[in-house]
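Handout, page 2. Input:
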Amino acid sequence: MENNEKIVVNEDTKFQKFLKGLGIFILTFMGYLLIPSLVGSVFYYSLHISENSAMMIGNTAFVFILIIVYRKMLLGKLKDYGRNFSRYFSDGIKCWVIGFAVMAVSNVILSYVTGDIAANEEANREFISGNLFLGFYSVVIMAPFVEEMIFRFGIRRMVFSDKWFPLVTAIMFGLAHIVFANTSSILEYFYVIPYGALGYAFGYIYAKTDNIYSSMVLHALHNFISFMAVSFMV
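Output:
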């Protein structure tokens, strides 16, 4: 009888943590959708700066909010990452290589089938070519931090299983890059596969190390390589 009661308590606690995590995730994601736009609009209309510059300011404001809210966690994990850098980074690189390989192969196949690249990738290329400095700041610095805090740290508050977490975060990460990219064809939804492959790699190393910087550094490295590739094409 006591064992059954303990099981009920544990399940109730897990469900409560899930609801709390879901609430935090929704608030964070909505903040990501609203705060940069609201703050950016203020600077855009008051200072008459470019739209890209205004959005950069808005995104920076959102990053500062995340840093303030999660400062203790971020500082603690930063110290842990520094102490275990060699192991975390080497394990992460292995995950990234596999994820990148799947991403590259599936991108080639999908580009052949659809006759075009993903809408999100095309938007990033246009943004980078428009302003290299803003492109670097947004793609290499801002995006890895914000996306890892939302799609890895945030989703981990809801999905506690090491087995299912990488898959769930991969799907949500992939869909986010498709849904919010003004897709013009239903075929473009298959691009969830390459984005998801990378998301799975980030999710796996995050679950393995329990350190957000493990996935954040890899994300930044991947985006830096992509940025350099696009820069040379400009």
